[in-house]
Amino acid sequence: MHFLKNIYTLLVFLFLTVYVFAQGTNKRQTSTSMELLSMYIPEGYEIYDKEMGDLNLDAYKDYILILEKNWSDDQSNKENTPDWLFIILTGNKDGRFSIAETVTHLVEDMDDSGCPPCAHVRKALQIRKGVFVFTKSTGGSSVALWKQYAFRYSTKDNTWHITWIAIQESNTEFNEDDRPIAVKKEKKRFITSSTLKNKSLRDFNDDDY
């Protein structure tokens, strides 16, 4: 019995040692990754969202960064820069990255009020071997437009092409106390590759759909 208790104590000790080591390693890796990513963030911007995966089928980790303009940063030229940036970083064998794409049209706010703090942009990123899916919702509290885009990597021209878009509008009704009482969602609409004509990420124009 005493022998079994010693074995149990040893196993618990080993488990805690491995767990603490793994946590420390994860923190160091996260810190290192953020330090590397910061090299590719233009001055006056900060990371709004990011996702990691194999975007160009070379087995190296890549990143998608969605950057938001830092409006608290006192810059004289901030009015002349985009509010949002969508950046694709492809990984290299030395652990560093190259900027493969930088676009603005995919993350532009659909609100034409011209007031960046009023922007209602919520999105999600997913990466699956050579494919990334980007989801965003724009609009206000009453009417919101949800869009989802899928892009696939092509080895022919080493870039990503739009394959489909899903669009859905929702309308929220409020009572006198400004509490939501009903949400009506329109039928989801799909736009397929035949209509999209396999446009590249750079040539794709969100305003056309």
Summarize the structure.
The protein has 2 helices and 10 strands; from the N terminus they run αββββββββββα.
Question: Could you characterize what this model shows?
Answer:
The chain is an alpha+beta fold and 209 residues long. The protein folds into 2 domains: 1-38; 39-208, no CATH class. Helix content is 20%, strand content 41%. It contains 2 helices and 10 strands. It has helices at residues 2-38, 193-196; strands at 45-53, 62-69, 84-91, 97-103, 122-128, 131-139, 143-154, 159-174, 180-185, 189-191. The strands form 2 sheets. Strands 5, 6, 7, 8, 9 and 10 form a 6-stranded antiparallel beta sheet that branches. A 4-stranded antiparallel beta sheet has the order 1-2-3-4, with no helix packed on it. Strand 1 and strand 2 form a beta hairpin. The longest helix has 37 residues, at 2-38. It is globular, with a radius of gyration of 22 Å. Residues 10-31 and 110-121 have low confidence and may be disordered.
